[in-house]
Specification:
The structure holds 2 protein chains of 2 kinds. By secondary structure, chain A is an alpha+beta fold. Chain A has 5 helices and 8 strands, in the order αααββββββββαα. The chains are: A alpha+beta, B alpha/beta.
């Protein structure tokens, strides 16, 4: 069996976050990432993508098929999206899609979590739980407003990228 | 330098593919993206000698390519070109004081229905993922029937009776590439045959645009980004084109959720196939038809996308369809017993509890139960049963749905002509998890539905119905031999073999299964599709991402593939269940059933071309290698009635004994 040393350093760096609360390893995995990784480090962590979309200048999307235990046909969104800026080779966001909604409460301790609503706090058509992970990294539980609500999508995104990808959320957070 | 200039200087792009092909009058959104400019003046858009500038709206600011800066989008929705020939579309303007221009040569093909008022019909069968091996496997299982005297209908390499789709007189091959990849999915391949134009993965009848980066590249697909999936240039499909311009009746029949990609391309427009709630809404309020329903007949699964509990907008589309005069069917019994109706919505399966998913875009899929399980055939205990029957115990088989759809569409008040798509969906859905029996029996079910349409078309006088059978794309199954495993020795899928190899890239491990009725795995090890996302120690080294490199086999003890099938010996032989008309898949007591052995190289689609067979007026057009987009134009041509010469030739070949015939055909 392949040894784990190549990603040991990254693993250790992320260990405090990864080990915190919760038994659902599948949802915890996203906290292995910090968004400070290089593309090479991403490849060492989760391998080479099964699909690379680079049809938009400035960005590259690395996409990974769902693991076999998750229902994977062409209706299933890729399990992982890693969005990279090609110029700076910076990881902008990492998205984890699940085939079935997951309990992610362990990732969103109440004291560190805010709920935001689209298009506005009074017109709640879509909600997101937001937790600040680091200075420039936010964890988003998409489509959930409070503990107990399950989600099929977690996003780790640079706060600085919110204005581009989720401007309504950037506006509310600021 | 040029790249830098390109990024900073104003420029304009017409969002149409280089090889845009349209029928005359076919609707398409004309969209101009102007980058690096705050304002434009002097906009002029011409189509040949016609100035169509007035059709364009006011420039709107947009964040194109997620790059910030100043960009504009200028739209003229639902435009068409009425004169056949090559139309040069040119857009020019001054963008922040710089003159910019772009152009496209659009091929506009003539389309007129017969002047005498006669109308032809098309029934298009899509076996999802039904590449050549899938047809072969269905034949080798359903046409290798051993009778009570021990006589096999497959003897000495000949069949007594070929598949229905084998018997169609004209064959060709369809190249299925998308606009962005060799290996496509059901959405962009469907867009090809539905609209005559190629597009990108997961797109339903929509071309790429500069806001795709908002969701395509980061996977942020949800209610807040839906607007960017619906702002792409749309191109009208043949179903809406025929209904809008000529009053054709339209239908879809599928064993999938009716909002799945293959049925969606006949009735919706979304750059993301999983915007299911929106797709269902467009079936009711179609943008090409001024908000009127897309179809006269909808039959399949997918109840959850239509009921209040499954939708974020809480609309009950079943009731809304009913209020527009649709008869509703929720079971096979309904479908059999309901009287004739002009419009029918049949949704035969939902989930136990309907709920919109957290993205807000859809409810969970509710595909119909696959044929193998509807027939109650045995699976190995270790093999999952997707879309199990549950409480939906009265689901129709595909041949019944096809017969009823044809009856509904062809009957009633006069005969305006109809176009119907019938999909065998779980050929693909069962191939993804490499469930051989599931995929083969679904192909057999599909072929029976083809037989229904052929029989109906054969009775027409004059012959006015084109039947086309093809696949949207292939998958990786191969016919590899005959299984020599007795029932008692089938391997449990949960007891697969972990084989390991030493390579220059380190130690490799793959999972090899030797399980499953009808299925012995390929000689090459089946590589577990992914270890991605599973970081447990037992899985980190099983993903396909670790497979490249030269394998040096160091472990030969476990070689299940060579134990489970024979390559060069014998034929399969199955028993027929006279009640269902399908082959059974269990051995009689004391007899070893010789099953077909198939192997899967992956659990995904491939880029291999797929067969096309056709019968009826215009069928001769479907010979030879063709691009998948050609199927759209060939179907359209058959409807014009201008096919007499070719039809006569095909009839001569079929009826004149000078020409050889294939045994069993």
């Amino acid at each position: 069996m392949r040894k784990l040393q190549p990603w040991g350093a990254l693993l250790l760096a992320a260990l405090p976050l990864f080990c915190e609360g919760g038994e659902n390893r599948k949802v915890q995995e996203i906290l292995r990432f910090t968004l400070q990784e290089t593309p090479e480090e991403i490849a060492k962590l989760i391998g080479r993508p099964s699909h690379v979309d680079d049809s938009v200048p400035g960005y590259q999307s690395w996409q990974y098929e769902p693991p076999p235990e998750e229902n994977g046909d062409d209706n299933s969104a890729p399990a992982w999206f890693v969005c990279l800026r090609t110029g700076t080779r910076q990881v902008v966001s990492i998205t984890r899609n699940f085939d079935k909604p997951q309990d992610v409460d362990a990732l969103f301790p109440m004291a560190q979590t805010m709920a935001h609503h689209w298009p506005s706090p009074t017109d709640r058509q879509f909600s997101v739980r937001v937790r600040r992970i680091s200075e420039d990294a936010l964890l988003l539980g998409m489509g959930t407003a409070k503990a107990g609500e399950r989600t099929s999508q977690l996003i780790l995104i640079r706060r600085s990228a919110l204005k581009t990808f989720l401007p309504w959320l950037a506006e509310q957070i600021e | 330098v040029s790249t830098l200039l390109g990024q900073s200087t104003p420029n304009v792009r017409i969002l149409l593919p280089e090889r845009t092909r349209l029928l005359q009058g076919q609707l398409v959104d004309l969209v101009l993206e102007v980058r690096n400019a705050k304002a434009v003046t002097g906009l002029t858009v011409t189509a040949g000698s016609n100035d169509i500038t007035a059709n364009f709206g006011t420039p709107a600011a947009a964040d194109l390519d997620c790059a910030g800066g100043s960009n504009l989008v200028i739209r003229a929705n639902l435009q068409s070109f009425d004169t056949p020939g090559t139309v040069k579309l040119t857009a020019s303007m001054s963008a922040d004081g710089t003159s910019v221009t772009d152009s496209r040569d659009i091929e506009v093909r003539a389309f007129q229905l017969p002047a005498d008022g006669t109308r032809r019909n098309v029934v298009l069968f899509i076996g999802d993922a039904m590449g050549t091996a899938y047809r072969d496997a269905a034949r080798l299982v359903s046409r290798a029937i051993v009778d009570s005297n021990g006589k096999n209908s497959l003897r000495e390499g000949f069949f007594d009776n070929l598949l229905e789709m084998d018997k169609m007189p004209v064959s060709g091959m369809s190249m299925t590439y998308g606009s962005d990849s060799v290996v496509p999915d059901s959405a962009n391949t469907g867009s090809s045959w539905a609209t005559g134009n190629k597009t990108f993965l997961a797109s339903v009848n929509s071309f790429a645009d500069g806001t795709d980066c908002k969701w395509r590249f980061n996977g942020q697909t949800n209610t807040t980004t839906l607007q960017y999936m619906l702002d792409n240039p749309r191109v009208e499909n043949l179903w809406q084109y025929l209904k809008r311009r000529f009053g054709y009746r339209t239908g879809i029949v599928t064993t999938a959720d009716v909002t799945d990609a293959t049925p969606a391309v006949e009735g919706a427009y979304s750059a993301y196939r999983q915007a299911r709630a929106e797709i269902a809404r467009q079936y009711l309020e179609n943008p090409m038809l001024g908000g009127q329903p897309a179809f006269d007949v909808i039959l399949g699964g997918g109840l959850d996308q239509f009921v209040s509990a499954g939708r974020k907008d809480s609309r009950n589309l079943v009731q809304e369809f009913q209020s527009k005069g649709y008869q509703f069917a929720g079971s096979a019994t309904d479908l059999k017993n309901n009287g004739y109706a002009w419009r029918v919505l049949g949704l035969f399966r939902g989930n136990p509890t309907a709920a919109a998913n957290s993205s807000g875009l859809a409810a969970s899929d509710s595909n119909m139960t696959v044929a193998y399980d509807k027939l109650g055939l045995s699976r190995p205990a270790s093999e999952s049963v997707p879309n199990a029957i549950g409480s939906y115990t009265d689901q129709p088989m595909l041949d019944l749905m096809t017969q009823k759809a044809i009856d509904y569409l062809s009957g009633g008040f006069g005969s305006p002509g109809f176009i119907l798509m019938v999909e065998g969906a779980s050929i693909d859905k069962e191939s993804h998890p490499n469930n051989a029996a599931g995929t083969i029996w679904d192909t057999i079910e599909f072929d029976k539905a083809v037989g229904v349409a052929r029989a109906w078309a054969a009775k027409r006088n004059p012959k006015d119905t084109l039947v086309v059978v093809t696949a949207d794309h292939d998958q990786s199954m191969s016919v590899i031999g005959v299984s020599n495993i007795p029932d008692t020795e089938y391997l449990d899928r949960s007891k697969n073999v972990q084989a390991s190899w030493s390579t220059a890239r380190g130690q490799q491990a793959v999972t090899v299964f030797g399980d499953s009725y009808t299925n012995a795995r390929a000689g090459l090890p089946w590589i577990n599709a992914s270890g991605n996302g599973d970081f447990s120690a037992s899985r980190v080294n099983t993903g396909a991402q670790y497979s490249p490199g030269t394998f040096a086999l160091t472990q030969t003890a476990d070689a299940p593939a060579t134990d489970t099938y024979v390559t060069y010996s014998g034929f399969p032989g199955y028993s027929l269940d006279s009640k269902t008309g399908y082959p059974t898949n269990t051995a009689k007591s004391g007899v070893m059933l010789r099953r077909l052995a198939v192997g899967f190289r992956t659990g995904d689609h491939t880029g291999t071309s797929v067969p096309v067979t056709a019968e009826g007026p215009g069928s001769f057009l479907f010979t030879g290698y063709m691009d998948q987009t050609d199927i759209f134009f060939k179907m359209a041509t058959s409807l014009t009635g201008d096919t007499a010469d070719g039809d006569k030739f095909v009839d001569t070949v079929l009826t004149n004994s000078r020409y050889p015939k294939t045994p069993g055909k």
